[in-house]
Amino acid sequence: MGSGRTLKLVVCEVLQFAGLCVPLFVVMQRFAAIVAKVQGGGSTGGAYWLIVASSVAYVTSVTLLVWVPLKYMVFAKKRFLVRRKKWRPVALVFVIVSTMPCFAFLIASSEVQIRNNLRHDTFGELPVSLILFSLICMDVVERIRHCRLTGQGERQRGSDRSHIGSALRPEPNGTVPRIPVSTERGFRASESGSRVTYTRSGPLRFLCASDARADVFVDGFMFWMDTAEMTRAVSHPLVCYSGWVCPIYVFCCLSCLRVVVTPHDPLLSSLGVVLQDLPFLFVRAGLLAFFGLVTPLLYLLKNLLVCLAFIYFNFMTKLRIFNTQRMYL
Predict the structure, then answer these.
(1) What would the pLDDT profile of 181-236 be if each residue is shown by its tens digit?
(2) Rounded distance, CA 64 to CA 68, Å?
(3) pLDDT value at residue 325
(4) 303 within 8 A of 277, measured Cβ to Cβ
(5) Could you tell me the keywords of this UniProt record (predicted)?
(6) Could you tell me if 272 and 258 are in contact, meaning their C-beta atoms sit under 8 angstroms apart?
(7) Could you report the per-residue pLDDT of 129-185, keeping only the tens digit for each?
């Protein structure tokens, strides 16, 4: 048992550390190649190796001065880190020391090429994919490190998944809406308190297989789909060599701050609108106006509908004109 826990700990830490270092090395190497091409020295020039050496020095300094002390405090269960369970200090430090510098060098690479009239690297796939994949790995590791990775999981979802009944809110008159319980077509429903669970019997019950540990991986990728599509627009040549690179990467970097909040926290909805959907709505509208269909209309509609739904259901429905029950009391 002890060896299994040690192995899981080592694998988790290696994955997180690789996600911290590899994107930095890749992005800074590509930036060094652009600077060397501008100066005409190639990969054997002094500027190239100076930037590469600087990236190694930066990663080493961050590891020894920030990452290792943070991990020590987390595993030592320091009170100021453990008691505040609504945010994740590891995710915050990861975004600050790895994700933000990567996006900063992507912006700098575009600016260097624009000012020198160079068309060398659009950073289309590998660097951006590594940045987002490292964030996904960090997020998944943080959410799954406390779970058992062997054997069957619990039938009920853990605290990292929301139950159907827990999302129920009282009506304005104080009553709590009830979900009709049906036992037709092989379904079995059981209601206990505010939680409603469903199981299915019959020959097709294997299709209802579900495990919260596997769902963590799905949630990890779905959480970043909008940001990934936003960064994909930068790979278009018309956008890459224009002034739109800076605002796109800045807002993508801000959207990454959502990972600092624990999953399914009530604050996550507001942060999603403020840090992602609302800024992305204006950026996508500007891209479509200046460059045409360089980003799908589907995501523009998604940003618009999310913003409108958030404002309507959280603010406008509280107005007296929308509260029909109060009007007839």
Answers:
(1) 444 444 444 444 444 555 666 777 777 777 788 888 888 888 889 998 998 888 88
(2) 6
(3) 60
(4) yes
(5) Membrane, Transmembrane, Transmembrane helix
(6) yes
(7) 889 999 999 999 888 887 777 766 654 444 444 443 444 444 444 444 444 444 444
Domain positions in the chain are 2-148+213-264
Q: How far apart are CA 178 and CA 196, in angstroms?
A: 10
8 A C-beta contact, residue 262 and residue 223? no
Mean pLDDT of all residues in 11-27: 91
pLDDT band at 41 (very low <50, low <70, confident <90, very high): low
Exposed/middle/buried for 326, CB within 10 Å: 0-12, 13-18, 19+? Answer: exposed
User: Tokens 């106006």 appear where?
Assistant: 289
Q: Label residue 322 exposed, middle or buried (CB < 10 Å: 0-12, 13-18, 19+).
A: exposed
Q: In this model, does residue 124 exceed pLDDT 80?
A: no
Total residues belonging to the chain: 329
Burial class of residue 223, CB neighbours in 10 A (0-12, 13-18, 19+): middle
